[in-house]
Amino acid sequence: MRIGVFGGTFDPVHNIHLFVAESARLMAGLDRVLFVPNSKAHYRAKPLAAPEHRCAMILGAIDANPHFMLDDTDLRPDATGYTADLLPKIHAKYPGASLTFITGADSLASNAWVRFEDVLESLESFVIAPRAGVSAEALTRVLAAVPATLRTRVKTLTLPEMPESATLVRTLLSQGKSVRYLVPEAVWQYIFAQKLYGFEESIE
Fold first, then answer.
1. Whose CA is closest to 192, among 177, 86, 46?
2. Sign of torsion, CA 85 91 94 100?
3. I need a labelling partner for 120 at 20 to 30 A (CA). Which of 62, 113, 141, 171 fits?
4. How many CB atoms lie under 10 A from the CB of residue 132?
5. CATH code that applies to domain 2-163
6. Domain regions of the chain by residue span
7. What pLDDT, in 10s, does the model give residues 123-181?
């Protein structure tokens, strides 16, 4: 079995997350994509929504796709929030499976990944979704420090450059504005019902 591991805060999960996950599934020939939310985000602000809310939104968002699954490994008490520690746990849950990690270009170019070589050693491939504002040169600089034998495992998805949608979603909600069609309908309904991210019922 070939499994994609899509890690992040998913605060909240939005339509571009789903588009990237499905694109990676098809382009990398994956049997399943795991959405793996975390709480110990070392490279960005702590998630605003509690883990139970983020998991509920992911479950609603992925319900229609039988190839998508939620995995809570990185929310457990022993989770460190580092991908190098997460992947052995995923391997233990799916013995014999080959893993592909999915991430945005901004995550790789803007952050110093801890034990990045260990991450790549654990994977069949490490696929990157292009992100608006992140140049190919920035990615090349990061990968230049990686041994050539591991560098071949890193691939960029042939997709348009994606904007940073989660920030936009949270900003609009804090202003009392609708994010319908930026997020899956189930996520929009959940945010509306739970009044997450400072959202109020008055919609502009």
1. 177
2. positive
3. 62
4. 11
5. 3.40.50.620
6. 2-163
7. 999 999 998 888 778 888 888 888 999 999 999 999 888 877 888 999 999 888 889 99
